Amino acid sequence: MDKIRIYPILEYILNEADTDDLAAIREALKRREKQQAFGGVNIQNVARQTGRSIEEQVGASVESIRDMIRNYAVQIIKGQAPEIGDEQLETLLESWIPDPGKKSRGGQSAGDIPQEALLTMIRQYIAYKTESMDPRELKSLVAEIGDWPQAYWSKFPVPVRRIITKYLNKEIDADMCWELINRSI
Questions:
Q1: Does the residue 97 lie in any domain?
Q2: How does pLDDT run across 82-140, given as a tens digit for each residue?
Q3: How far is Cα 150 from Cα 76, in angstroms, rounded to an integer?
Q4: Nearest-CA neighbor of 169 among 131, 130, 121, 132?
């Protein structure tokens, strides 16, 4: 025992500590006794280190799954639209499979989606909502994207959403809808 260090502590406990200090000391001693019961191993530190290790491993797994999905999306896009350029492909991938490490634009803007792709998405969404979509196209979208209507809707700029809503509510006709959409994007 290190007598030089322990005597001031004992002096404080015996002569200066108030009831709150004594309660804190008792709690510290209980914790220390529990550690001794486990062979002196600090269970909290072990748990913290294990938690960090698991978190790192899961993070690596999530990243590898994201990469796998991204590679699969590249194959699908190149198979369906071989004429798409690398820059457009990267833009689509970033909008559909964003990197969680990068800051998002909040999904309110379609500025990162090429106009041609955005118009295709709008056409598909309207066709789906008006039940005029080709069943093969619907099946393909569901297979490739899953809940694609929600994914598309979240990528549409707010003005486009308003125009589509007006069209679906029969407040404007198809010609007016497309005229307004073309003006807004």
A1: no
A2: 888 888 888 888 777 777 655 444 443 455 788 888 999 999 999 999 999 999 999 99
A3: 20
A4: 130
Residue 84 lies in a domain: no
How many domains does the structure of the chain reveal? Answer: 2
Contact (CB, 8 A) for 135 and 127: no
Residue-wise pLDDT tens digits, 7-41 = 888 888 899 989 988 998 898 888 877 766 666 66
Under the phi-then-psi rule, with left for phi > 0, alpha for psi from -120 to 50, and beta for the rest, what region is 107?
left
pTM assigned to the model: 0.42
Cβ atoms of residues 121 and 155 within 8 Å: yes
Q: 151: domain range? A: 105-185
**Which 3 state secondary structure label does DSSP give 52?**
helix
Q: Judge whether 184 lies within some domain.
A: yes
Give 62-99 as a DSSP string.
HHHHHHHHHHHHHHHHHHH-TT--HHHHHHHHHHHS--
